[in-house]
Design a protein that fits this description.
Layout: E1 8-12, H1 16-28, E2 31-35, H2 38-47, E3 49-52, E4 57-60, E5 63-65, E6 76-79, H3 86-93, E7 102-105, H4 112-120, E8 125-137, E9 140-151, H5 159-181, H6 192-213, H7 224-243, H8 253-263, H9 270-276, H10 287-296, H11 302-315
Parallel strand pairs: 1-2, 1-6, 2-5, 3-9, 6-7, 7-8
Antiparallel strand pairs: 3-4, 8-9
């Protein structure tokens, strides 16, 4: 396929992120089906999907379904379910996929493609996702910033995995070209694990704090103590990544975290949005993942560990 031979696309777990990127592909000409819960899918089916940004509001007509079987025949599947649902959804999805279907994980965390592989034997393509978007009403997205991806072949670490990564290179380039043709920046990284860990470092620095305080990013840096905590979270996560032999990017991660906050001061983290809606969070794939991995290397990560515990208590309604 060429970039302008548009794929048939299915979005599995069509929340804010999946709907946003599905809509970008649909607007460009791809045949897209959003698959999600009944209420939001019905709203989109009836009135279209509205994307509200600071510059404009656009409405996109797009197909919807509540059944996983709707992925049948798809060339590209955007896998957007919560990390807690990764394995069970991947197993349920597998019978409907073509052998050549590109399965793209647009999820928080760094190990979702490993979970998919362990559950099904499918080798998904990981994506580091950079977009500030949330569901503001049924069938309506509020887009606050960015909207780009970075993808690449996941290093499974065995000989078979290395061979599979080489074999997947043309498919990964094709997926990149589809998004680029739709106006979505989507570079292919030779070190996608570093991209995933960069996103994880940013998430660990801001997500739990925004969730517990129920404040947007800009309200988290109003005192030296708050800034010190964010910087310490960055350092903890970097230490664990390096111990885990991740070849991290040569950047100032503390500065990058504060620049992220400056760019999106009004954004609430995905964890904060989950808490506000009474939904389970993905904290175990973020600060919790770092805290557990730190134990393997006998590294102390008190902030990541405590924030994980506090978010879980908040989920259970122990305090408000």
């Amino acid at each position: 396929m060429t970039p302008h031979t548009w794929p048939r696309v299915a979005v599995v777990g069509a929340g804010a992120v999946g709907c946003y990127f599905g809509a970008r592909l649909a607007k460009a000409g791809a045949q897209v089906t959003l698959i999600g819960r009944e209420a939001p899918m019905n709203a989109i089916a009836q009135q279209g999907l509205s994307i509200v940004s600071k510059d404009a509001t656009e409405s996109i007509q797009i197909s919807t379904s509540t059944e996983l079987s709707a992925v049948t025949g798809s060339d590209l599947v955007l896998f957007c379910v919560k990390t807690n649902d990764t394995q069970i959804t991947a197993r349920a999805l597998q019978p409907y996929l073509k052998p050549q279907t590109a399965l793209l994980s647009l999820q928080n965390g760094v190990d979702n493609v490993e979970r998919i592989f362990q559950a099904t034997g499918l080798r998904a393509i990981p994506a580091a996702v950079y977009v500030a978007v949330e569901v503001s009403a049924p069938g309506q997205l509020l887009h606050k910033g960015r909207g780009d991806l970075c993808i690449g072949a996941y290093p499974f670490g065995d000989r078979e995995g290395a061979a599979a990564a080489l074999a997947m290179a043309p498919l990964i380039e094709q997926v990149s070209s589809w998004f680029e043709a739709a106006g979505v920046p989507c570079p292919v990284s030779e070190n996608v694990l570093a991209e995933l860990w960069t996103k994880l470092i940013m998430n660990c620095a801001v997500n739990a704090i925004s969730a517990l305080a129920q404040v947007p990013y800009g309200r988290m840096v109003e005192s030296p103590e708050e800034r010190d905590m964010i910087a310490a979270l960055v350092r903890e996560t970097i230490e664990v990544g390096r111990a885990h032999a991740v070849r991290l990017k040569d950047i100032d991660y503390e500065r990058a975290a504060f620049e992220l906050i400056e760019v999106m001061p009004g954004q609430y983290s995905s964890t904060a949005q989950d808490i506000a809606r009474g939904k389970p969070t993905e904290i175990d794939a973020l600060n919790g993942f770092v805290a557990v991995l730190a134990q393997k290397y006998q590294i102390q990560t008190p902030l990541n560990r405590w924030l994980t515990t506090l978010v879980k208590l908040r989920e259970k309604g122990k305090f408000s």
